[in-house]
Design goal:
single chain, alpha+beta, OB fold (Dihydrolipoamide Acetyltransferase, E2P), 7 helices, elongated
Length: about 325
């Protein structure tokens, strides 16, 4: 495996041409490089890439990888081949990406990566460890999004019938068989949505800067965790009380509430908050005066009841 130091991306065309749209190629290359950068960061493998002369036959892009540890470079390129060719295990039919992993799953993936690093240091690498590490790395959000972008670009370019990924030795000879992904399978790698599961803080404290004192779909403004935010007030009981009963707000007025952060992936796979909404106002605070709301009492009672039921069934 130590003689691996390059890889080839082969675009197969429906015609006999050897030309590719420059914009498509550059966009695909940018996503592929993004995947390599993120994977090398996760695996803590330093690598630099040199663009080699491309070959014809459809269109073939070739990269040569350079680094201090040739064994690590070989492992990285092998993992990149697996990442590009293996579809992620995601429910693309869901309206939200179910990518919030449980603690045990995260720990298992971390251990798989650490195990591979240890084997690289000891010079005893087996294919099982490489595959386990590749699957762990491929679950990274940035890599999932970058790969989705990559296949979206290719799918839009109609004359590409399939792509092939080959890892090469120093003489540009294949080290193993080319791995091929057919056009009919491109969709398996493409995210149907960028939306992530929302996060809720049911003890959020928001200092109110600007309450909404008129009817309409206007957003409130406040400070949450030392940062200014705009949010929708979806607690209709509290909103109506503000409008009808003229609940006063003064400098330093705060609410304790259940705050939902709506999230999605950006083009680079970073998680960004697209908006906030308050579902339940639990308390209103003015200086030393704390006023619990009726809906706050109901919310806490329901949560306490739910927790006691979970404890009951969990003890069986």
């Amino acid at each position: 495996m130590n003689n691996i130091n390059g890889f080839e991306l082969h675009y197969y065309f429906s015609d006999k041409s050897h030309e590719i749209d420059a914009f498509v190629r550059n966009r695909c290359e940018a996503e592929l490089l993004g995947i390599i950068i993120e994977a090398s960061h996760i695996l803590e493998i330093e690598v630099s890439l040199i663009k080699d002369v491309y070959n014809e036959g459809g269109f073939r892009d070739i990269w040569k990888a350079l680094g201090d540890n040739q064994g690590s470079i070989a492992i990285l390129l092998t993992i990149i081949q697996i990442i590009i060719s293996v579809a992620p295990h995601l429910n693309f039919e869901s309206k939200e990406l179910e990518l919030e992993e449980k603690r045990l799953a995260i720990e298992e993936k971390r251990l798989n990566i650490e195990k591979l690093k240890q084997e690289i240091e000891n010079g005893k690498i087996n294919s099982k460890a490489v595959n386990e590490a590749a699957l762990a790395v491929s679950s990274n959000l940035k890599i999932i999004k970058r790969k989705s972008n990559f296949y979206s670009r290719i799918e839009e370019y109609q004359k590409v019938t399939k792509i092939g990924i080959t890892i090469l030795d120093e003489k540009r000879n294949p080290v193993a068989d080319e791995v091929v992904v057919l056009r009919s399978d491109f969709y398996k790698h493409i995210l149907g949505t960028n939306r992530l599961r929302s996060e809720e803080d049911d003890k959020a404290i928001i200092e109110i800067i600007s309450p909404v004192l008129k009817e309409g779909r206007y957003k409130w403004k406040g400070v949450y965790k030392d940062a200014p935010i705009s949010f929708e007030m979806n607690d209709h009981s509290f909103r109506d009380a503000v409008l009808i009963d003229n609940i006063p707000f003064r400098h330093g007025s705060k609410i304790v509430c259940a705050l939902v952060a709506h999230r999605e992936l950006d083009e680079a796979g970073n998680i960004k908050v697209t908006g906030y909404s308050v579902t339940t106002v639990l308390e209103k605070i003015d200086g030393d005066t704390v006023t619990e709301t009726i809906q706050g009492k109901k919310y806490r009672h329901a949560k306490k009841l739910s927790k006691s039921q979970s404890d009951l069934f969990g003890s069986w």
